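=== RUN LOG ===
request id: a7f3
mode: sequence -> structure
chains: 1
length: 283
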Amino acid sequence: MRASGGEQFLCRARGRLKQTGGSLLVGDRVIFQPAAGAADKKCEGIIEAVLPRKNILHRPPAVNVDQMILVTPLRDPAPDWQLAGRLLALAEQQQMKAILCLNKADLVTAAEQAETKRMLEAFPYPCIFTSALRGDGVQDLIEHLGGHCSIFAGPSGAGKSSLLNAIHPDFSLKVGSVSDKIGRGRHTTRTAELLVLPSGGMVVDTPGFSRLEFVDLEPQHLAGLFPEMRPYSGRCAFRDCSHLSEPGCAVREAVSVGKINRMRFEHYQAFFNELMNRRDQYR
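=== RESULT ===
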């Protein structure tokens, strides 16, 4: 645990706190008391209470985060754009800022990078092309981290830990390679870890994953998690338009003229159908 003055303490939770069933998560703000004399180095403080949380992420597990750095590899492994879309919707659901970090830029040609930029036209989030190996975009990323508690999220092998080492070499985080057999990264980060940046701000390094399900989300609320769709949703002919097949849909019209990114809209359609199918299963 890190105190407001910067000191670090090895703490345990008060017994009654454990009995309430509340588990501590990375990013929790707590009230604690230093142990008398702090002679026992296995326990230098007692956590008395957990303060109210601003938000909570179930996967990756963290709380009180205000910004997501979505690390998506351009190659090795291939980018999973639909997983990226899920994470961006999660960031919106938890009222977090989001930045798309397109990593491993050193593994693609200039033409391939230009094609990715074209594919991301009308994308509603800042996009930074980075390379932990060459240092591309690292300074730009650092400037976005100051004053925030940011979570680095993305699939295994995306290069999250390598990027954090490039941002601050003293982190010395373990990095791994991509499995040739399964085409995905091997887990090197096993648990979420809160790291403090020397330039200000904090970051949460998280384990990678390849599957993410929406939690506590109804289909009719999904469009609100796509910021580029919000200006058009109220212009549809039908108030309860799902933006899938109804006539007079302003959202689909915006997609057809390039005002909404087509790939993003395809993600919306897939997620909406997934949520509808899940709701039907539990009726």
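=== NOTES ===
The first strand starts at residue 11 and ends at 13.
The chain has three domains: 11-52, 57-205, 219-281.
=== END ===
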